[in-house]
Amino acid sequence: MRFSEKMTLLEEIVHKLETEKLPLEDSLELFERGISLVSEAKGFLSEAEQRISMVTDKGQEPVILEGVTEDGGR
């Protein structure tokens, strides 16, 4: 499952837990699934950070996009 799909699923779980009156067992199951997704997402982000660090540490300069500010705007 892609990172973006995990985040979408996590958002859906949070929404259900916040808005629906679920039986305790169902809530607990959703909570556990959410915790698992968070762990997977953290692992993905950590791996991505390491890969970026490896690329930039090998003497390659990071890509600089002209006209784009630090917050992603133009």
From TrEMBL:
Sequence similarity: Belongs to the XseB family.
A GO MF label: exodeoxyribonuclease VII activity
CC terms in the record's Gene Ontology section: cytosol; exodeoxyribonuclease VII complex
Compartment list: Cytoplasm
Record-linked Gene3D superfamilies: Exonuclease VII, small subunit
Protein keywords: Cytoplasm, Exonuclease, Hydrolase, Nuclease
Organism of provenance: Dethiosulfovibrio peptidovorans DSM 11002
Leader peptide range in chain numbering: none
Protein name per its UniProtKB record: Exodeoxyribonuclease 7 small subunit
InterPro entries: Exonuc_VII_S, Exonuc_VII_ssu_sf
Main location: cytoplasm
Uppermost EC category: hydrolase
NCBIfam families hit by this protein: xseB
